[in-house]
Fold:
Amino acid sequence: MVTFSGAGLSAESGIATFRDPDGIWARFDPSVYASQAGFNAQPAHVVEWYNGRRRAVAAAAPNAAHRALANSRATAHITQNIDSLLESAGADPVIHLHGLIGWDRCNAACGYREAIDSSDPPPLRTCPECGELLRPDVVWFGEPLSPQIWVAAESAVVAADLVLVAGTSAEVWPAAGLVELAHDVGAAIVVVNTEATPVSRISDVELLGKAGEIIPRLFDEDYGMS
Ligand code: OAD
Structure:
């Protein structure tokens, strides 16, 4: 079993999702806050916006769904989430398709990366290696995923007999394509989400409701699938 998660997994930890009616992209323009052009136009403003999200992530704790996934026999946890709540719950390995908000990297891609204190994040600053600006180490719209991370995710999915999909609108590609790939190679698809999504049609089992309520019950030791 492999898990594949999105922002809904962390919603009950108090971290905003993106596409719900009160989600991040309903309130903020992704072309400003999730694109290279947006960063280039207002780098200090964009970093301050990420710093607000960093403080929210730093204040959050794993919820019952993170803990249940971490304690399951999943061979890998593929996530679109940029928080580290699966790791905090003890999950291993966690494959972050969209990067980690707790890191900065060189905007000029000189290769420099640095972990930051998300509870007290620094303002915009320059790369100590090359003098260009540092930016949050998350994937923005129009940017490719890390090839190494993508290969790790594909390999995990192809080897899985079951993929548990939790809390994602499955609208962002190529990430959502991993669920299609899993289905195509014969894995069972179990979806836990508060609403139907594009992967509903390829799910073998779809459970509509909150991840923190449903997922722990899936792994109940008396009748669960752990
Ligand atoms: P979305 O906000 O698009 O989708 C979250 C899904 O979780 C929705 O279908 C919600 O209905 C559902 N949901 C909300 N609360 C839930 C709960 N408590 N339990 C279960 N499900 C719940 O978030 P993602 O699918 O993660 O990209 O979005 C994918 C990517 O789009 C993100 O990684 C981000 C964003 O732009 C980057 O940052 C690169």
